[in-house]
Design goal:
Order of helices and strands: EHHHHHHHEHEEHHHEHEEEHEHEHHH
Structural class: alpha/beta
CATH superfamily of the largest domain: Metal-dependent hydrolases
CATH class of the largest domain: Alpha Beta
Shape: globular
CATH architecture of the largest domain: Alpha-Beta Barrel
Helix content: 40-55%
Strand order of the largest sheet: 4-5-6-9-10
CATH topology of the largest domain: TIM Barrel
Number of domains: 2
Number of strands: 10
Length: 392
C-alpha cells in the first residue's frame, strides 16, 4: 500500500516518534486518560513521559477494558510484536523496544503494516526539520515528501517574519513584490524537497471567495506554483484548534465546513488538482457529490476523528456507491511509527468489507468478480489511485 499522509519522517532525520512510551502518550490516549484518572492536564504534563505512559496503561488497560479504538489499536500493536496486551505493567514492552535497531525496526513496522511507501508531512517553517533539508540529509526512498504550508495560509504575519529570516524580502502588505517572494520561496522548497503535493490544514470557517491574505496567497502564489509543477494541492478541512488548550495536542476539535468552498475552487481553477479530506462526518456526503461534479477533486482518507471503524465503514461504503473505486479510502495520519500497524490493519478490514458488499450487490445481476478484478480494485483503492494522482 501507499500511505497517502503521515506525520512520520525518514529515519535519517531522527524525528520519528516510536517505542512504547510514544505509543501510549499519543494525544488520542491523553484525551482519554483525563476521563478516567483523577489528574489535571497540568499535573499530567508535569510528569516524565514514562510516568505518563505508566499512568495511561494502568487506567486504560489494567483498570478498564481497552475497547476504545485508540486503546484497541495499542493492543493490536502489542499483538503484532508478540507482546502481552494484558500485562500488568510495561516492563516487557520496554525491554522489547529497547533492543530494537532503529533502521531494522522501521522496516519491520512497514512490513507488518504492509506499507511499501508513505508520504511524510514536511514543514519548511519548522526549525527542527528545515536544517535536514538544507543540509542535504539522505532520504529513505520509501519516504516521500509533502510540502506543508500552514503558516502561509493560517498565520501570515508569522510566515512573513520567517520568510524575512530566511532571506526573502517582503512587505507588510501583500503586494506584487511580496507575492513574487512567496512564489520564490515555494519554488525553492519544491526543488529542495521534491514533494508529491502541497498541503494545508484549514478551519471549518475556511471561505472562498474572500478578501483575505489567505485567499490572496492561495490564488496568486500557491495555485499558480502547483500548476507550474503539476503538483496537487491537499486541503484538510474542519479542525478547530485548541478548544481546550490545557490538553495540548489533544485539545483540538471538529467543525462542519462549507463544501461549496471546494466546489468553487475546483470550478475556478480547473487546471489545478485538489486532494481533500474533511474532519466532520456531516461533510462526507457533500464531498462525494462534489467529486462527482469535478474530476479535478480526489477525496482521500478518513482523517483524525473520522478514523474509527464504524465511520471508515460508513464513509467507504458511501464513496464506493457514489464514486466507484476512484478515490483513496484511507491514510494512516500516523504520528508514531507503530501506529501504521493498527491503523492499517483496522482500516483494511473495513475497506475489504465495504468492497465485498458492493460485489454482493452485483450478484443478483449475474456479475461476479474474478480474482484478477478483485486484485485490480484493491490495488486502485490502496495504491494505484494515489500513485497516479501523485505522479509516482
Amino acid at each position: 500500500m501507499l500511505d497517502f499522509h503521515t506525520h512520520l519522517y525518514t529515519p535519517s532525520f531522527g524525528m520519528t516518534l516510536w517505542g512504547v512510551d510514544e505509543i501510549l502518550t499519543y494525544h488520542y490516549l491523553v484525551a482519554e486518560i483525563m476521563r478516567f484518572a483523577p489528574i489535571t492536564p497540568a499535573e499530567f504534563f508535569a510528569m516524565q513521559k514514562p510516568q505518563q505512559a505508566d499512568l495511561i496503561w494502568d487506567y486504560l488497560f489494567v483498570r478498564n477494558s481497552p475497547i476504545s479504538e485508540a486503546t484497541t489499536g495499542v493492543c493490536t500493536i502489542f499483538a503484532a510484536f508478540g507482546l502481552d496486551p494484558r500485562a500488568n505493567d510495561l516492563r516487557e514492552a520496554r525491554e522489547y523496544f529497547a533492543k530494537q535497531s532503529t533502521l531494522e525496526h522501521f522496516s519491520r513496522v512497514l512490513e507488518l503494516a504492509n506499507v511499501e511507501s508513505l508520504v511524510m508531512t514536511n514543514d519548511p517553517f519548522d526549525d527542527r526539520e528545515s536544517p535536514h533539508w538544507e543540509g542535504g540529509s539522505v532520504r529513505d526512498p520509501r519516504f516521500h515528501a509533502a510540502l506543508r504550508i500552514d503558516p502561509l495560509l493560517n498565520a501570515w504575519q508569522l510566515a512573513s517574519s520567517k520568510l524575512r529570516e530566511k532571506g526573502y524580502s517582503r512587505t507588510e502588505q501583500l503586494d506584487d513584490a511580496t507575492l513574487v517572494e512567496v512564489r520564490r520561496f515555494l519554488e525553492d522548497w519544491i526543488v529542495r524537497m521534491k514533494p508529491l503535493y502541497l498541503a494545508v490544514s484549514l478551519p471549518p470557517t475556511f471561505a472562498y471567495p474572500q478578501d483575505s491574505a489567505r485567499i490572496t496567497i492561495l490564488k496568486e502564489a500557491i495555485l499558480p506554483v502547483c500548476r507550474k509543477h503539476n503538483l496537487p494541492f491537499a486541503m484538510m478541512i474542519g479542525v478547530r484548534k485548541q478548544v481546550n488548550p490545557g490538553l495540548g495536542d489533544a485539545g483540538d476539535s471538529v467543525g462542519i465546513a462549507d463544501v461549496g468552498v471546494v466546489e468553487r475552487l475546483c470550478h475556478d481553477f480547473p487546471d489545478n488538482r485538489f486532494l481533500v479530506t474533511m474532519l466532520a462526518r456531516e461533510n462526507q456526503q457533500a464531498l462525494c457529490v462534489a467529486a462527482r461534479k469535478f474530476a479535478n477533486l480526489l477525496p482521500f482518507g478518513c482523517w483524525w476523528f473520522m478514523n474509527n471503524p464504524s465511520l471508515v465503514a460508513e464513509t467507504t461504503k458511501m464513496r464506493l456507491e457514489m464514486l466507484g473505486p476512484s478515490f483513496v479510502p484511507q491514510h494512516s495520519d500516523a504520528r508514531v511509527l507503530e501506529h501504521l500497524i493498527y491503523k492499517w490493519r483496522h482500516s483494511r478490514r473495513e475497506i475489504a468489507s465495504a468492497l465485498a458488499g458492493r460485489y454482493e450487490a452485483l450478484a443478483p445481476s449475474g456479475w461476479s468478480p474474478t480474482e484478477e478484478e478483485i486484485a485490480r480494485d484493491a490495488r486502485l483503492l490502496l495504491r494505484d489511485n494515489a500513485a497516479t494522482w501523485l505522479s509516482l
